[in-house]
Design a protein that fits this description.
Length: about 550
């Protein structure tokens, strides 16, 4: 709790928590100012500092437990190491009222005492708790007002064309006045090229070379041209965007650069904001002509349409096959007249490998026939799976009866709680118990009633869920009988696709190389079934949830 007296803090040790964000730094507040103030404060009051907890550059809008030093402070308080904590003011705990109050609660529940060095009050009293709430709200108001002022200032600067932070687009650099200018500086290891010339090359390959984004990415990687993260040595710095880069050109990145209107001289400020704010269009130096930029958009769109048109074959296992090497999906494609499933990692530069996947292509007819045969075998010979389901249902019936009995008991107990509450009030009216006793008893009854209501909701969910499970056995036999009739005839693709989607959860393929052999390799196919079930309506299977199936595994040689 907060203390208005330093006597509680006199003793062997105290801890100091300090925090400053980038917004605070713009107000000329620094972590060093808080450290200096706390040091002098402790010297004046003869307090010994046990440990410093410093969150430098951390916003006050995130919970204390999500801050590096804040999380350590809570952990030490929980372990009894941190018992007395000094802060400069309430804003250090949070800039949002909810965050501040949660931080105080989190520390106090572990027995830690907190004191503001500039705001003397005590939260052990109602008045002190009220002041705490007011100060927390004031801190949030101060932050919102400051942000609004900053946004207005940023919009004014944006209208003038200044670059206001964030990663500068590839091909540009920011000058001393804060404006973008074309970056013609030589690239490291590629002195004959600059970022601007890379952008020109990229658009040339798209417009004049008619190359796809995949081909452009492959070409840039083959040339060894460094992307911005590698060039600026940002790949190892902290931050989600920076940690996930592989230091290579990706097709998606190339596509985004082709679509970026900045390269034709128009940048829109504020479009990435998740807040409802004004979008400001301003002019910047153009690297690409307006005509070339629009031609690139037409070609990019044409490539996308052409990719859809090239789907000459329907793929039964579309979206179901995953690569055992990189974890990405396989997609269907045709090499000349032969259809194959190809791993997306061979072109996406994604997944844990952060590069091109070395997996082999899988012949579509072979893997589709393999999986379809397994589906047909299960439909005709489900084996012990249905028997196991029946056994499960018998156990479910036993549990359901117990749940119903418990539900009746809970409902009776809830009625008794209302009677108990009325009895307490009658005793108080007769002046047989004090107001304090009434408050204690009513609080206990309220808490007990809440626990019973929570349990009643849980029981209702369990009973309803088991009621659905009880119906499964009959559904399984009916569905399998219907499917056996359906698969006797030659099925259209849509029907087979519906059955496969209902039966197969995913298929994991591992391809293995053989030394000295160029084209013949082995593939292990691991099909995971989750029998989502099928209702046969007018001869067409319709998926419905039923029960999980076992795993299947098969290894055979494949080509390509």
């Amino acid at each position: 709790m907060f203390s208005n007296s330093l006597e509680d803090f006199f003793g062997p040790e105290v801890d100091i928590y300090a925090r400053v964000s980038s917004e605070d730094q713009q107000e000329r507040e620094t972590i060093e100012n808080q450290i200096e103030y706390a040091t002098k404060y402790c010297e004046l009051n003869k307090l010994t500092i046990r440990e410093w907890y410093l969150d430098d550059g951390i916003t006050g809008t995130i919970p204390l437990r999500d801050r590096p030093a804040g999380a350590k402070l809570i952990k030490d308080a929980q372990e009894g190491k941190s018992k007395k904590i000094l802060i400069f003011n309430m804003k250090r705990l949070g800039r949002v009222a909810r965050v501040t109050l949660d931080a105080v609660y989190e520390l106090e529940k572990h027995g830690a005492k907190i004191k503001s060095m500039t705001e003397p009050f005590d939260t052990s009293t109602p008045a002190g708790r009220f002041i705490l709430t007011v100060l927390a709200g004031q801190a949030e108001l101060d932050r919102d007002t400051m942000l609004e002022t900053m946004w207005h200032g940023a919009n004014r600067a944006a209208r003038k064309g200044k670059w206001l932070g964030g990663i500068v687009p590839y091909g540009y650099k920011k000058n001393h006045d804060g404006f973008l200018e074309i970056n013609c500086d030589p690239l490291p290891g590629k002195e004959d090229m600059s970022e601007a010339s890379v952008i020109e090359l990229l658009y040339h390959l798209c417009v004049n070379g008619k190359m796809s984004t995949i081909q452009i990415a492959d070409y840039l990687n083959a040339l060894g041209i460094p992307p911005s993260y590698v060039k600026d040595n940002r790949s190892i710095k902290r931050g989600r965007r920076k940690e996930k880069t592989a230091g290579v050109w990706r097709p998606a990145r190339v596509g985004n650069m082709i679509k970026n209107s900045t390269y034709r001289g128009i940048h829109v400020y504020g479009k990435r904001s998740n807040k409802d704010r004004e979008l400001i269009e301003r002019k910047v130096p153009a690297i690409i002509s307006e005509e070339m930029w629009h031609q690139a958009q037409i070609i990019l769109k044409a490539n996308q349409i052409e990719a859809v048109k090239n789907t000459k074959r329907q793929y039964l296992l579309r979206g179901l096959i995953k690569c055992g090497c990189c974890g990405l999906n396989y997609h269907g494609t045709a090499y000349r007249s032969s259809p194959f499933y190809v791993c997306n990692g061979k072109t996406a530069y994604a997944g844990p490998l952060m590069g091109k996947c070395k997996s082999r292509n899988i012949p579509a007819p072979w893997v589709e026939n393999l999986v379809w045969e397994q589906c047909v075998n299960f439909i005709n010979n489900p084996g012990d799976t249905v028997k196991e389901l029946v056994n499960v249902d018998e156990k479910v019936l036993d549990h359901t009866a117990a749940y119903i009995d418990e539900k009746e008991l809970v409902q009776k107990s809830l009625l008794n709680k209302d009677d108990e509450r009325q009895s307490i009030l009658e005793l108080y009216r007769k002046k047989m118990i004090s107001s304090n006793d009434v408050e204690i008893q009513l609080t206990e009854i309220t808490n007990e009633k809440k626990e019973l209501e929570d349990r009643l909701r849980e029981l209702n969910i369990l009973i309803e869920g088991n009621a659905r499970k009880e119906k499964r056995t009959d559904d399984v036999f009916q569905i399998l009988d219907g499917l056996r009739e359906v698969i006797k005839e030659e099925l259209p693709f849509e029907t087979k696709r519906a059955i496969v989607k209902a039966l197969v959860k995913k298929i994991i393929v591992h391809t293995h190389f053989e030394d000295g052999v160029k084209r013949f390799h082995n593939a292990s196919v691991h099909a995971e079934f989750s029998f989502d079930g099928i209702k046969v309506i007018n001869g067409t299977p319709v998926p419905v949830v039923i029960f999980p199936l076992s795993m299947k595994h098969k290894a055979v040689p494949v080509l390509h």
